Amino acid sequence: MIHFDNVSKRYPGGYEALSGVNLHLDAGELAFLTGHSGAGKSTLLKLLMLLERPTSGALLINGKNVSRLSNFRIPSYRRQLGVVFQDHQLLMDRTVFDNVALPLQVAGFSRKETGRRVRAALDSVGLLSKEKQSPLALSGGEQQRVGIARAVVHKPRILLADEPTGNLDPELSAEIMNLFQRFQDVGVTVLIATHDIDLIHRLNHRIVRLDQGSVAEGGGAYAPAF
Amino acid sequence: MPQPSNQTARRGAVGAKVGLRAKMGAVIAHHRHTLEDSLIRLLRDPFQTLMTTVVVAIALSLPATLLLVVDNVRQFENNFDSFSQITVYVNNTASQQQVAVIQEKIQSFSEVNSLVYVDPKQALNEFTEASGFGSALEYLDDNPLPPVFIIEPAIDVLSLPQKAQKLIAKMVNIDLVDDAQIDMLWLQRLKSLTELGKKVVLALGGALGLGVLVIIGNSIRLAIHSRREEIIVVKLVGGTDAYVRRPFLYFGMLQGLFGALVAGIMLTIGFWWLGGSVENISQLYGSHFMLRGPGFQGFFALLGTGFLLGLAGAWLAVGKHLNHIKPR
Ligand SMILES: Nc1ncnc2c1ncn2[C@@H]1O[C@H](COP(=O)(O)OP(=O)(O)O)[C@@H](O)[C@H]1O
Ligand SMILES: [Mg+2]
Q1: How much is the pTM?
Q2: Interface predicted TM-score (ipTM) of this complex, two decimals
Q3: Are A106 and B240 within 8 A, CB to CB?
Q4: H/E/C letters for each residue in A177-225?
Q5: B236 touches chain A (CB under 8 A)
Q6: Angstroms from B325 CA to nearest CA on chain A
């Protein structure tokens, strides 16, 4: 589903954030992306979101090289993804419902269908009762769950998260990770960047470790490390 | 049997149609939603909206006023034939009888509608009374004023210069007639003034139209700035450029429309208010001239102009400022 083939990324300043990354994720797999601060985790996710383009190498999504996708096709590509950020990027001047509805509005869903799917997504993160509230009225953990609902409302095949638990205490973090596992259970491919080592070592999932822009561990096809 | 398969095909076509219709419905719904949302945003920031509206209204109403003035003056010029006149000067030495003969001759011309004789004695008396030079004029031996006929020609004469020229030649040829003149010089001056006026309207309209673009562009720039986060999120979840642009285009269109609406109302009221006094004056001079306001057509032309300028200003601003916001 996700395949990095010798991908490098050099930023305009000249700094090489990723060098020769090889990484393969099967459809329906869940992997954690770890590494020290500045290792290149966010850069790798940005390449997947086409927020940045690889300097060299090929990035295949579902067998298709997207690294040279024209700007015109970016929106429809992004609609296959769900993305979650550490700072959740919710719009504070809209209700929870309207925040979650955004990916559907952008894709041209009817009002009725939008309402149905938004409620289903909010239900799956346990926030159906808060649909009419402003995100400002919610706790940090709840805000992040709204962010996750928005990321999955359009049923993407790939879910990307950049430090989704960075601002949360351990208990809430575990809760959020459980949520991601439930989306994997229904077939979504999930890639989560985090440096919450303690937490992810308790969960039995593949760990990809980046070091200075290269994959130090876990890049190949999934093989349980017994 | 071919019929069932035929029916199936038709059913399939209907299904596709409904799908398309649903999609169209969603797009239309989004347009409507965006329009409502833009309206709400404009009302939520009444000061900024009012400022922009007033400035746009002034910028639109200045050239529109001038245009209407030029339009009215031209209408006035066209209206003018009905009270333009030819003055015929008779030689001072002509006797009463000779003057009467001249009068008969002029009246016999088919090009002449009516004529008024101004007696020199009567004219001098009136002048003496009106000017207050009474005692000074008593020293004059002879009356310096010639006998004069003021002629109102038939309607078609003055609109055709050759015909007017011919009539004048005919009258000058009459014995003891010194001269005949059309009082048209000022009309020609007026015409060249309105030509100039048209050019001024064009130049001013262009400059102020550019001003409206800048004003609306600036207000769009502010709107883009204040909605930066939203733009980023919309792009992240796969919003197209058209989707991102749409609310700002509506915003600009609405501001242009508001400004034009205010300008149109101001002009309509202003010209209606002036129209009353102008009508009184023109009746005094026996004219049917009436001041013309913007009217329905002008009003809608103004709205259209505001709408297009708003749209263009927004389009330019969006093109310039949206590209600065990452992500692409
Ligand atoms: N837009 C950018 N321009 C230049 N350098 C950048 C940019 N973004 C990230 N970097 C650099 O690339 C390296 C990797 O950053 P990042 O991918 O954010 O790492 P991580 O998310 O693992 O902390 C860092 O050294 C960072 O300074
Ligand atoms: Mg990072």
Answers
A1: 0.72
A2: 0.90
A3: yes
A4: HHHHHHHHHCCCEEEEECCCHHHHHHCCCEEEEEECCEEEECCCCCCCC
A5: yes
A6: 12
